[in-house]
Write a structure and sequence with these properties.
With 122 residues, this protein is mainly alpha-helical. Helix content is 70%, strand content 0%. The radius of gyration is 15 Å and the shape is globular.
């Protein structure tokens, strides 16, 4: 769900993106979203965190095991990715609404990121 909303947010903020399908490329859309916030390098880090989280999740699914040496990095990269998402979203919120940007971030954290991208359409 967040993948689709991130892609729609990119299209909403960046009217000159051509072709529009670039916003729907997995992992690359995180780079585009961070680039809109002015932090392209954080988007690359976020894509890396997503890729590692996905890889570790597939490993656990295929091997039917959840070992501590896999779970700890998986949890670490998931939390780092969440924080990077919140940081880039904060910059987008401030760009969209200077008055309510901090309030949107608080609600995003309290909802564990579920409301994060819906505020960008405010």
């Amino acid at each position: 769900m967040t993948y689709f909303l991130e892609s729609l947010t990119i299209i909403h903020f960046d009217k000159k993106i051509k072709p529009i399908g670039k916003a729907f490329i997995p992992f690359y859309n995180k780079v585009l979203l961070a680039d809109l916030a002015g932090y392209k390098f954080l988007g690359v880090l976020r894509s890396g965190c997503s890729f590692i989280t996905l890889f570790l999740g597939i490993y656990c699914f295929v091997t039917f095991t959840l070992k501590l040496f896999v779970f700890i990095p998986h949890l670490f990269f998931f939390i780092v990715g969440f924080v990077l998402d919140l940081f880039t979203s904060q910059k987008l919120f401030k760009r969209k609404s200077e008055k309510y940007g901090d309030l949107f971030t608080v609600f995003s954290v309290l909802s564990l990121g579920l409301l994060r991208l819906s505020f960008c359409f405010y």
